[in-house]
Structure formats: C-alpha cells, structure tokens
Amino acid sequence: MLDIQSAGSGWTKSVYRVQLRGQPLAIKTVNMRGKDMMKCLGQGLRNPTPSWQATPSTSECYHQAASKIIREVAILTQLAPHDHFIPTLAASPGCTPAVTYH
C-alpha cells in the first residue's frame, strides 16, 4: 500500500506525495474541484454558463484540464537536470480519477 499525502493544489492540478520503493515521488492529477474544472462545467462564481449554452460534460472538462498537465510534462521532460526541479520519471495521460465528485 502506498502512503499518499496531499502536497497541494491549484487551478488545474492536485499534487500528491508518495513513497515508491523508498523514493519520494510526486503525482500530479486534475484537480476535480479546481477553478479550471469549475469554469469549464459552468460553475464559475463570476461567469456561470448561460442557461441557453450547452455545458460540457465532466469527461470533456477533465480531458481539457488534463491536456494542460500533459503540456507541462512535455516541457519538464525536456529540461536539463537541475537542483530546483524534480526529474519527470513517467507520465500516463490515460489516468482517470478514482473518485467521482458530484
């Protein structure tokens, strides 16, 4: 069993700390309650989706937010090793959340 701890969250992603084979790792995933998801789902506080406009599905919004993380990972994998960056070991764009939020 993995020891998973929340390390933080932002507009697009949630970050979790884990230990895998004794090595500390960070896992980034879509923040299902983040501003990007809420805005996409039309639940933004300042700009709610008008009733006449079709609201995207949770899946569509998830994939839109995940694409931002994928772009970030693409950049991180091209960076030279540096003391201020944790190296990117792997990425899996096919991951979906295990918890469904309503």
From TrEMBL:
GO terms for cellular component: extracellular region. GO terms for molecular function: non-membrane spanning protein tyrosine kinase activity. One of its GO terms (biological process) is skeletal system development. PANTHER family: EXTRACELLULAR TYROSINE-PROTEIN KINASE PKDCC-LIKE (PTHR46448:SF4), PROTEIN KINASE DOMAIN-CONTAINING PROTEIN (PTHR46448). This is Protein kinase domain-containing protein.
